[in-house]
Amino acid sequence: MQTILVAGAGKSSTYLIQYLLTYAPQHKWKVIIADGDANAIAEKINGNPHGESAVIDITNAEQRAPLVKQADIVISLMPPQLHIHLAKDCLLYKKNLITSSYISDELRLMDKEVKEAGLMFMCEMGLDPGIDHMTANKIIHSIHRVAGSIYSFKSYCGGLIAPESDNNPWHYKFSWNPKNIITAGLGGAKYLSNGKEVEIPYEKIFDNNKKIKVEGLGQLAYYPNRDSLKYLETYDIPDIKTFLRATLRYPAFCVGWQAMIQLGLTTHEDTFVKNGQTYTSWMMAKAGCKAGASPKECIAEKLGVETDSKAMELLQWLGMFDDLPLKPGTQSSGDILLELLLEKWAMASAEKDMVVMQHEVEYTHKERKTKLTSTMIIKGENRDFSAMAKTVGLPMGILARMVLNKKINPPTGVHIPNMAIVYKPVLTELAHHGISFNEEIE
Fold this sequence. Notes:
Blueprint: E1 2-7, H1 14-27, E2 29-35, H2 38-45, E3 51-55, H3 61-70, E4 73-76, H4 83-93, E5 96-99, H5 105-108, H6 111-116, E6 120-122, H7 131-145, E7 149-161, H8 178-182, E8 189-193, E9 196-200, E10 210-214, E11 218-224, H9 232-235, E12 242-249, H10 251-262, E13 272-273, H11 279-287, H12 295-303, H13 310-317, E14 330-331, H14 333-344, E15 353-365, E16 368-379, H15 387-404, E17 413-415, H16 420-432, E18 438-441
Parallel strand pairs: 1-2, 1-4, 2-3, 4-5, 5-6, 6-17, 7-12
Antiparallel strand pairs: 7-15, 8-9, 10-11, 11-12, 13-14, 15-16, 16-18
Helix pairs in contact: 1-15, 3-4, 7-16, 10-13, 11-12, 15-16
């Protein structure tokens, strides 16, 4: 019997755990789900005899190490900063590791040791990063095979609310880790545009966003995503002049979020005593409004907009001008904002999310310029079986199954899934689950 350890039973784990438990009888697997929340584990296992619960503190080595030691492969859905605990155990006990998170500096430094141990630490194996790497490299490698020269590559991805469940002016609801929304763009962004490196600070990322057209959805806004430049060497596109990885949102979201940043409401670098305060008084304090000032007039002036502007409408919908009381205590502004958004952007159980990914590739072949647009639109079934959970979880589950069944010879070292021996079989199976792309060439 083979044992799979899944660390994390949060929003993104639903499809992954279901997938592993579905195949467990056929392959004689035991699937151990480790998390600090017993109820979350129980919901995911749902009485399946091949699932086993392990309620642990992942930072506690005495609780964690024995689980890693008995596993044949480890899949981590923990917050990024916690992967390192599992990674060190995997190296010690010679276990392959799969995560959906960006490769951290700590993990990158382990590459030599992981290779020497003959292990695979496959990171960025989710949606974005993950499916984007696999589909991007499939396109890039196919163009290179016919001696095409790629001069522009733009990749966009967003977790959105499906149109049929879209009933608020922000056109957004939480379908994955809410804390990631508050910190989005925090480190700024870098990308390549017409041969020049462009660096955008956090304060400007959501400002004046450009738009793309997505067939069937119309115009979506995008903002640059982290450091695109670090993938230039990995993607092996030496002739590239424009290279951009970006996140998709509906245009209104970017208008509202830029206002939040301007007002200082997203920061975790401050502390605010909430006792006797309201969301309005908190916002006015952050904006430096004088006592007795009109909230709407002061905030509009701070933002440089009219009181009836879109940004003000979005703040109004959140209740920022309704003197809603804050719970007593002391928190950062980012945590206060998150508390509000968890209520306002909550998905109802029957509501559906949507994942959109689009690659735009421009290249020359035999002196002819060509543009390829590759698009994926996936809708969730409901809040629990979301498109986000499906597209983040299934790539990891498929890779784990193929490694355990020796259908894939795992590449040694710390990697992202940009190699054909991984992306070809994984993308083929993802298509069987309805995760596929439509391509247009012009």
